Every structure is written in C-alpha cells, then in structure tokens.
Amino acid sequence: MAEKRYINRELSWLSFNARVLQEAADETVPLIERLRFLGIFSNNLDEFFKVRYATVKRIDLAGKAGKKVLGGIKANKLLEAITKIVIDQQSESLKILDDIQTKLKSHNIHVINEDQVTPNQKEFIKNFFLSKVSPALVTIILNDLPEMPSLKDSAAYLAVKMVMSDDTEPSQGISKIINRKVNEKRYVLIEIPRNIERFVVLPEENGKQYVILLDDLIRFNLNTIFNIFSYESLSAHMIKITRDAELDLDSDLSKSFIEKISDSVRDRIKGDPVRFVYDKNIDSDTLTYLMNKMGIDSTDSIIPGGRYHNRRDYMGFPSLGGPELQYEVREPLPIPGLILQTSVLKGIAEKDYLLYTPYQSFAYVVKFLREAALDPRVKTIKITIYRLAKISHIASSLINAVKNGKKVTVQIELRARFDEVANIRYAEQMQEEGVNLIFGVPGLKVHCKTCVIEREEDGKLKRYGFISTGNFNESTSKVYTDYTLFTADPAILREVDMVFDFFETNYKVNKYKHLIVSPHYTRNVIYNLIQNEIDNARNGKPAGIRLKLNSLSDNGVIEKLYTASKAGVKIKLIVRGICCLVPGIKGLSENIEAISIVDKFLEHPRVFIFENNENPRIYISSADFMTRNLDQRVEISCPIYDEDIKQELIETFEISWNDNVKARNHCPGIENPYRENDKPALRSQFALYDYYLRKTDIQE
Questions:
Q1: Among positive and negative, which fits the CA dihedral 343, 347, 349, 353?
Q2: What sequence ranges are listed for the domain Polyphosphate kinase C-terminal (predicted)?
Q3: 573, 635 contact by CB (below 8 A)
Q4: CA-CA distance, 561 to 592, in Å (whole number)?
Q5: If we measure between CA atoms, which residue out of 195, 245, 252, 628 comes closest to residue 420?
Q6: CA angle at residue 332 from 328 to 337, to 5 degrees?
Q7: Same domain, 609 and 578
Q8: Could you tell me the CA-to-CA distances from 174 to 15, 141, 163, 229, 296 in Å, in that order?
C-alpha cells in the first residue's frame, strides 16, 4: 500500500520535465518557441543531475537503506530508473529537434553543419573563427598529461581523435618534430567557449537565413587549429560532464560568510561527476580512453546522446523569421487604480493592491523602491533578496537609498543555488556602499520575499511594504507568474518587521497572529487549516481546499490531504512540478483532483484557499509544501484581508483550474495525459491576460 500512496519525488520531477518536452513537441507552439522549450528541458536536466541525482548517488555510496528517504525505492534502483528514463527522454528530444529544424526550412531558416557550408559562407566563417573564436579556445592534448585535467561542470567539449601520419619530410619544419610514429592516436579536448553566442547567424543568401552552431564552426576550422601537426585523419565528437553541485562550507572561523560561500562555489568545479553525456557516434576507442582517463564508473549516469550537448543554449536561439515563429509579445498591464506616474505610496496608504506578473508590470516593485529611496520622510528600508537579475534596478535603488541617508537592511541569501556568484557580487557592492547586510540564519535558507519601509508621518513612523510569491528579479518577472501584495496594513507589516528581527536575533522565536512563518509555524498552521475543513465537512458545512503550488512532496501534508479527502473535502490542486500525492484513489484520494499547467510562462505562485464555511481564508506564500519549505527555510505566507483581492485570487485560480488546453492530469506514471472535457477551449495564461485587460478597460 505504501508504494501506491506516494509518487517518488525524483520520478515525479522527471515527469514534470517530460511536460516541458511535450511543449517542444506541440505543433501548435511556434517553431522557435519549441526550440526554446528544448533548451529549458535540457537546462532543467542539468540542474536535476547536479542536485537531485547527486543526492541519491551520495545516499547510495553511503550504503543507506534508502527506503525511508526515497519513498520505497532503494537508491541504486532509483539511479537505474532515472538513467533509463533520461536516455528515453534524450532520444525523444533529438527526434523533436530534427522535426523542428526540418520545419524551419519551410520558413527559409536553415541550421547547417560544417559539411553544408556554401562557398560564399566560407570566408565569413574563417574570419569569424580567427577574430572571435580562436583567441578564446582552450585546447588540451591529453596523451602527455599524467592525469585528466578537471573538466568544467556542464561545459561542452569536442573530443578530437588525431591519427598521426608518417614523418617522411623533416625539412618541412616544426610539425614533423612534433610527430611521434605512424598511426599514433592522439586525443585532444577543445572547450566550447561560453562567452560567444552558441548560434552564429551567417550572411543571408537568396532570401534564406542560415545558422551554424559554434561547435560546427569549430569543426570546420579543425585544420586551422591543428595545422602544426601531420595527421592522417581528424574526428571530433562532443562530450559533457555534470558534477555534484552541493556546497561544502569551510568551518574556518577566521573567514567571513561571503568568503566561505565564494570558496565553496570555486570548489564546486571539483565536485564528483554524476553524469557523462557523449555523442553516440563517437569512436569506441575514443570513448574508452576518455572514460578511463576520467575515472567514470557504473555509479555515474552514462548517457549516449546526439551530436550536440548543452541544448540549454536553445533558450537563446536567435529571433529569426516572421512573427508566426514566436509568441506574440503582449505588454504588461497596469494595476487599476495604482498609477506609476504618481506616488505609489500614497495609493497604497489608501488600500491594498495585488500585482500579478507578467500579466501586470513589475515596474511597480521598482517604483516602490525608487520612491522610497528619494522620499525624505522614508527613514528605513528592509528587504529580503533571493535571486537578483544580472542588471538589477532593485539593487541600484537600495544603494541610491543609502546615498540619500536611509538606513537600508538587506537579508541576502548567498546560498541561492546556481545564483551564488551573482548574489556575492551584489552583496559585496552593497556592503561597500553602506547597506547593512544580513546573511541569514544558521542552518536555514531565507526564501521569503518581502520588503517593509518606515515613513515618518504626523510625528510617527508608518510602515509600507510588499510580500511576494516570487523573486524581486526584473528578468524572471517577464516569464514567471507571481503575485505581490502591496499593503500598508500595520498588523501585517509589524509582523514582517518581526521576521527581520529574527534574522538578527535567531535565538528569539516570535509569535504571529497574521503571518504564517516557517520554520516554526507553517506545518502546524497548515495542518490546522486542513483540519478545519475536515471538521466542517463532517459537520455538513461547506468545505473545500484549493492550492496552487510549485511542488507537493511532504508526506505529512499529503497524509493530511488524504484524511480530508476521506472526510469528503473537495480538493483542487494545481501543482506545476513535483507532485508526490496520488489523486483519485478510491477510499483514499477520490475527492482530490490534481493538474499541472506548462505553457508560455513558468507557473510560480503559491496560493492557499480554504473554504472555511463560506468565509474563505486565503494566503499567498513563498513556500511550497515540501519538507524543506516547512521545516528548513524561512518562509512567509501572508493572509489576504481585502475582499476585492480575495475575489481576484479566487477568480484567477478558477481560470487556471478550468484550463483544458495546457493542463495535464497528475498520475503515477510519466504519461502526462492532457486534461480533456467537452467545455470550450480555455488556455489559462492567455485567458488571464484578457481578464486583466478587461479590468484595465473597466477602470479607464
């Protein structure tokens, strides 16, 4: 029975990535967008191996039984299952890529390789290589090295086999001195430069656009690279290694926290390999040589792939062709009643406002901080930061505030995975400018997203602030859906200020009447909210639970939802990614429906709606229902008190729930069946934009 109650977390994640692959295969999706979904699929897989596969591998190597940790599957069996699924998915992704590139030809867009270069393109490619690529190349001859150099995590390399020719003309110079013996095989690695665009757009010919991958442009110039050698033949095939991304923090008390994180990120390049991907057409002797040299063994995931790796770069495929090849760009809408051209603080003082990006403009967050930075009556600004954009107006606004005499406190999470380097850079910059930095709570990541300011009004300090489900990041706000509540509610913001007190005095655990704060309270409060619905259902009162999450994997919460289902509580779950709960099991979860929506934007908000006997209790949150969010991170779930905003959240949830175009039903396997019904087609992300457009039109 235990195996039927839960879906393994890792396998559920692979099911989510299969939904991304479905988007790449969907012929109703514009062709270049399909290429970009292939890039997202590949990028997701890289991160999965760095984190989740690496974790399972560590459990296996430690000799733990694995059942309790891995939901009924032993670690070694799970590693095998993951590798099999990934090989199948990779094979499918190659077929999809071939199909897309074939279809692009009908739009006069041709992705060519080194053997398809036309005479007119040769000079451009040679010049491009000599001026931009050759100076950036790192080329390593392996034969003379006693051991394999440390390959960069997730970097792509061309593995070159050079079969040497007979040295019969020593007078021809240095190339003959370098050679050893006839038919000697020399093995070389060429690192594909990451500071050059992966896709090189070639000059247009006869109304046709041509693109060559940087890998093939290098292959075309192999003779130039190795012109000092005499060889019979050259062959080049791509390989890639993925390493364990776990950070190992130094215990040296003399180092600052920034130094420890910086050192740990640098050490990550020496992490244990967990995946080796190679071109399935590589020569067997080359493959054997490389695997022996790198010490790859059976506990690593060895994936035969296609000609190209790092397909994550397809996320940046150039915008070529007509508008039909990409999604229509729809400008983000204003928040009705909150005017960017005037004081947003004045507007927020009068009522709460809800922002839903990317349907509405993230500029409201930036405007809030810029106004606070300039307003002479604003005295303090406190904000949490998890992931910043590469060029962050948020950071510049905070620095501007310091220069204007404000006291600015920033809790910045240096351990935000894969964004450590960017966060360290901004932390150092803000620290230099006088921002008071807090580096979290020992043993806990700070994942909540909130800001509170204090403004002097009538001789007293009044608080304004915002609480969000997502990061304060201009880049991701264009593609991640997230809610942000702007409020001047003194009760809520007093408790936000208490959270900042906790950052600085970790030993003191505050009590909250309004916010739900992890790690101390979220689990019990969520249990109590679910129990209230159970009690209402048993007493014949209206009961129901609606949740929108990124992930649902905590067994305790799942069991509580199963209990609610058995009590007759109707439960609607929109879970984008991992869902370990099994819906629709008679006698256990028959009152639970669960869907996932994967479409143009990444579904990112967390919303909790509890019916509460027709008086809904509604929260927006930074927390998913995963053990780490409940027990091992600082998270904030914020109640919604404004009746108009409550209704807006219910209506937008229902629009998403009624999706029958991009919604898939969660199920134990990885089939990801699309939800089908007899209702008119409703694509929720498009419908939500129209919903906010109507609100804007009504306001005008």
A1: negative
A2: 344-508, 515-685
A3: no
A4: 8
A5: 245
A6: 150
A7: yes
A8: 56, 17, 18, 8, 36
**CA 616 vs CA 16, 608, 646, 649, 651: distances in Å:** 30, 10, 8, 11, 13
For this structure, is 447 an active site residue?
A: yes
Distance of CA 209 to the CA centre of its chain: 31
Crossing angle (nearest 10°) for helices 420-433 and 393-403: 10
| DSSP bridge partners of 592 | 571
Give average pLDDT by consecutive 10-residue segment, the chain, 700 residues. 75 95 97 96 88 83 61 83 91 94 96 93 96 94 85 83 72 47 83 91 93 95 92 91 57 44 45 76 91 73 79 91 93 96 96 98 97 97 88 91 96 68 79 88 89 96 97 92 98 97 85 96 97 98 98 97 98 97 95 98 97 98 96 96 98 98 88 92 98 84
H or E element that contains 574: strand 570-575
How long is the chain? Answer: 700
Q: Whole-angstrom Cα distance, residue 181 to residue 162?
A: 12
Active-site residue among 309, 393, 447, 666? 447
Distance CA(563)–CA(597), nearest Å, equals: 26
Residue 239 domain flag: yes
Decide which of 504, 533, 560 is a domain's last residue: 504
What are residue 637's DSSP bridge partners? 516, 621
Q: What is the CATH number of the domain that holds 24?
A: 3.30.1840.10
If we measure between CA atoms, which residue out of 560, 395, 573, 358 comes closest to residue 470?
358
Q: Are residues 479 and 583 in the same domain?
A: no
57, 39, 37, 47: which is closest to 13 by C-alpha?
47
Rounded CA-CA distance 472/628 in Å is 21
> Which two tokens mark 540?
């014949």
Residue 368 structural domain? 344-504
Structural domain count, the chain: 3
**In the structure, how many helices (H) and strands (E) does the chain have?**
22, 26
- Determine contact, residues 450/384, Cβ cutoff 8 Å: yes
Q: Residue 290 domain-assigned?
A: yes
**Of 576, 517, 526, residue with least CA distance to 551:** 576
CA-CA distance, 43 to 97, in Å (whole number)?
A: 15
Tokens of residue 688, six digits: 């939500």
Amino acid at 692: Y
* Residues of each annotated binding site for Mg(2+): 387, 417
272 and 398 in one domain? no
Detail the residues annotated as belonging to a binding site: 44, 387, 417, 480, 576, 604
Distance, in Å, from the CA atom of 570 to the CA atom of 561, rounded to the nearest integer, reads 10
CA–CA dist 466, 278 (Å, integer): 47
Provide the 8-state DSSP code for 129.
I
Q: State the first-to-last Cα distance of the chain, in angstroms, to the nearest integer.
A: 57
Q: Which two tokens stand for residue 206?
A: 């006869």
For residue 469, give both structure tokens.
């489900």
Question: With a threshold of 0.90, does the pTM exceed it?
Answer: no
- As given in the structure block, the two tokens for residue 442 are 């020992």
Residue 438 CA to residue 421 CA, distance in Å, equals 17
Alpha-carbon distance of 340 to 128, in angstroms, equals 45
Question: 574 to each of 525, 578, 659, 681, how far by Cα in Å?
Answer: 21, 11, 11, 18
Distance CA 568, CA 589 (A): 10
H/E element, 645: helix 643-657
- Domain assignment of residue 373, yes or no: yes
DSSP string, 478-505: GTEEEEEEEE--HHHHHHHHHHHHHHH-
